[in-house]
Amino acid sequence: MRKLTYAGALNEALRLEMQRDPTIFVAGEDVGTYGGIFGVTNGLLAEFGPKRVVDTPITESAIIGMATGAAAAGLRPVVELMFIDFIGVSLDQLFNQAAKMKYMFGGKATLPLVLRTECGAGMSAAAQHSQCLESWFMHVPGLKVVLPSTPYDAKGLLISSIRDNNPIVFIEHKMLYGTEGEVPEGEYTIPLGKADIKRAGTDVTVVATLAMVPKALAVAEELSKEGISVEVIDPRTLTPLDEETILESVKKTHRLVIVTEEVGHAGSSAEIAARVAEKAFDYLDAGIRRVTAPFSPVPFSPALESHFIPSEAKIMDAVRAVLGAPETA
Amino acid sequence: MSEIPKETLLSIYETMVKIRVFESRVSELFAQGKLPGFIHLYIGEEAVATGVCAHLNPGDYITSTHRGHGHLIAKGGDLKLMMAELYGKRTGYCKGKGGSMHIADVDLGILGANGIVGGGPPIATGAGFALKYQGKDNVAVCFFGDGASNQGTTHEGMNMAAIWKLPVVFVCENNFYGISLSQERHQSISDIADRAAAYDMPGVVVDGNDVTAVYEAAAEAIKRARAGHGPSLIECKTYRYRGHFEGDPTVYRSKEELEAWMKKDPIPRFETNLKKMGLLDDARIMAIHKEMEDRVDEAIRFAEESPWPDPSELLEDIYTGPAVVV
Amino acid sequence: MTSIGIIANPASGKDIRRLIAHGSVFDNQEKVSIVRRVMLGLESVGVEKVIFMPDYFGIGRRAVEGIQTQLAVETLPIKMEASQEDSTLAARLMREAGVGAIVTLGGDGTNRAVAKEIGDVPLMPISTGTNNVFPQMIEGTVVGLAAGIVARRLLPLEQTTTRQLRLEVWRGEELIDIALVDVVVNVEAFIGSRAVWDMSKVREVVLTRASPSNIGLSSIGGGLYCARLDRKHGVYLRLNEGHGPLELTAPIAPGLVETMHIADYRLLPVGAQVPVQFTPSILALDGEREVVVEQEQAVVVRLTENGPLLIDLHRTLELAAQKGLMVKTELPPLAEGACLLHALGLCSDPQEDCR
Known about the structure:
The complex is a heterotrimer of chains A (about 325), B (about 325) and C (about 350).
Chain A: E1 3-5, H1 6-20, E2 24-28, H2 44-48, E3 53-55, H3 60-72, E4 76-81, H4 91-104, E5 113-119, H5 134-138, E6 144-146, H6 151-163, E7 167-173, E8 180-182, E9 196-199, E10 204-208, H7 212-224, E11 230-234, E12 237-239, H8 243-253, E13 256-263, H9 268-280, E14 289-293, H10 302-308, H11 312-322
Parallel strand pairs in A: 2-3, 2-4, 4-5, 5-7, 6-7, 10-11, 10-13, 13-14
Antiparallel strand pairs in A: 1-8, 6-12, 9-11
Chain B: H1 6-31, H2 46-53, E1 61-63, H3 69-74, H4 79-87, H5 120-133, E2 140-145, H6 152-163, E3 168-174, E4 177-178, E5 181-182, H7 183-186, E6 203-207, H8 211-226, E7 232-237, H9 255-262, H10 266-276, H11 282-305
Parallel strand pairs in B: 1-2, 2-3, 3-7, 6-7
Antiparallel strand pairs in B: 4-5
Chain C: E1 3-8, H1 17-20, H2 28-44, E2 49-52, H3 59-65, E3 72-75, H4 84-96, E4 101-106, H5 108-115, E5 123-127, H6 140-151, H7 157-160, E6 161-163, E7 166-171, E8 174-179, E9 182-186, E10 202-207, H8 219-222, E11 233-240, E12 246-253, E13 256-269, E14 273-275, E15 281-285, E16 288-293, E17 299-304, E18 309-311, H9 313-322, H10 340-344
Parallel strand pairs in C: 1-2, 1-4, 2-3, 4-5
Antiparallel strand pairs in C: 6-18, 7-8, 7-17, 9-10, 9-15, 10-11, 11-13, 12-13, 14-17, 15-16
Helix pairs in contact in C: 2-3, 2-6, 4-5, 6-9
């Protein structure tokens, strides 16, 4: 099958959807002439013109608020928050306005809006351009949180998100943009709230998101050489969360490792661990392990950053630990 | 200034009285403990919402504020649904999920009161963006206060509306207080309209207690917006008779100041004009007041007889489509 | 002690004419800055005290806070109404306090309010309003110099000031209001946002001056040239709605050149009066709807010479230079009309007729 990069898959999703539905527009900082700081919106301006591909001033509150008003008035905005870290200056418009509008209005508002943003460490972009903040959005009723790890998922999930009638925070990972994978031509959707079993296994369940998915898969491959069968699950959306797939897997493997790049404290990994503890405790043969970033701002120096980001070695250790092996790290 | 049709003049008067009567009764109901939550009343500022909304049709949008009842009534909100919402009843505008600070009627173009000071300007800008995108000649009006005029969101919204020449009219209700802080303590300027120049849009000051002055300025700003010439800022100098919220002891302002403003009450001022023009007489004035009292009574009856929301409704209306179960 | 009154209107330059026309925007920070320049000019020519009208923005207070000055500063103890009555009352109190001149910052409307009570105190108006005929756009520092020289009576008033005409609105024996430039009869119902821009509502126009270079309603008269028009005459015009013997265009507001139909043109000598023919109506005075005329009410507009003594900035400073008032060096006595340079022996190329 044809291969595309993660960024290319997202770009194709935007193009196909914009061709299909004239109420969709793209707006954000440097999304037009520049083509997006990571190239995701490249070529859209040429194809759809400045009415539908809108370069905004660097005013994140107005970007999100504008999208909210435009969605309430009948459009389907796909707006870009250049770095997820910038949500700090604009959070009110997302969590007090967009997320709650439908409920506050007694159901009489429909807000089909996608906030595309990008997260993650690995480029020495330091503390204000590298965070993983997905758990912030999980905490707000009214939002959906989507986070693809492969080009295939990126395209299908973005199309689904654009067609969904709710405010969606669509989180991409900056270190995945250049990764390649098979992506079908034409449109297809992936249901929001459906996890994907990236590798089937029987001994340990590893739940991973975003850039931790390829790492978990590499670890699974490595351990398979020792006869250890690891099942790798990517939830793909955190709200809604496909609890069922995770629980079914744990009931089969009896062991769970959760891997996220977020700091662990109050992170999405904590929520997943709690759910499994609540609903599948009796199936567990070992304590749940989490592999996360430490409780620290993201450091600048590559020497520190590489230590901050969960490594394959740490994942491997965690998997061995739930299997009863002594840890090396 | 083109002539204001007589029916419009009378309807403006009736709307101002409607707001005044509604708000006065809400104040009583709150004092009687019948209304939960916080209530921010519009008494004294009726000329602003009425003078602006007299130009709007259901295809036009407004964003409102925490002091939003007047905007809703002026935009055509239903008194029964409003009152039921203030009571927290299932029959209210928002099924009892929003309350005073979040009343909305999207079908009437009311994108909600707002509990966040400065929450509305980016949203009004977005509604204006949609209208322009859709090629409509409608407008979005953003009501906000002197307090919100300092919020970054207000400036971001104005900037965006200005660079894209969106059909947005920013209407500042300068009532001289951001909660307890007087204007001279919360900003270093006296005329918020001065800020319009920073966004290359017209900014004007009008007497917000003179409904004809508000009407004229709004007519021009809205005409300009509908014609595609972009946003404007109208600053209406006005005053709230009540505290920031019901129960506010208003220790931050003097009785003399309040009394001076009450002498400039927008309703008797307009009444005098209409009497001179022969459009109103005492009997008609009494009749209008009576009618509004009756309508508010009816709204109260409706609200009190309405059922509470069922606990099962708590988890409804969070998402469009299937509920998200966590 | 020579003192000067300063009346700065914080509300000028912000009305609806920025929406209906393209009126200039005057923020209050700029007014503060102008007052500072005026004060520094005043101080340099020996004025000792400045009296301010209080205002809701605190233009005077902020101006003083921003400069180093030896000027004594007083603010009138007025209870502010934030209306034009503040300016009228301030002018009266300043006159009673014996100020040598009053400097105003505002538009035609502000000066109209001040002129009501200024009496014979010389007036130096700076335009910070919308479309002004009476005050000019002039620089604050030189205003300070000229106003200071006049206030100290360093030059005779008859050389530095000119008496202005004014229009008086009388209801029976009662003088109800005045205008410095124009009275316009509008068949409208409300004072509303005050500005006048719909010519279909304008029926009569009475002017103290009719210069074609003026902006505003007086330009209607300006567009019709009359060889006999001088400083002792005003103009009366009657307009028809949408038809009439003469179609005229005039810049009635900044950026707003409108068409109107003239039915009647008359020169008015000083002392003449014209009855308001259209009632009920609203009279706009110097561009702002102001006076309500009831049905059948008898109101007349009278042209008089009771206007303020207007300081001629250019003439004053020319004369001052000629008299050597800017020269700090001790001067020999100068004969009337004598050349300062010649007397000082500074001129390198004296001509025969120099003296």
